[in-house]
Amino acid sequence: MTIRRLTSKAALLPAAATAAAGTPRPRLILLASVVFVLLASALGACSSSSSSTAPPSSSSTTTASAAPTAHGTSRPLTGTGTGTLTLNLATGAATGDFSGHLYPLGAETGHDNLTFTLTGASTFSYTGTRTFVAANGDKLFSAIKGSGTFTSTASHSTETDTITGGTGRFAGASGTYTDTISSVVVSATSASQTSRVTAVAHGQIRY
Question: By residue range, what is the domain housing residue 104?
Answer without folding.
Answer: 24-206
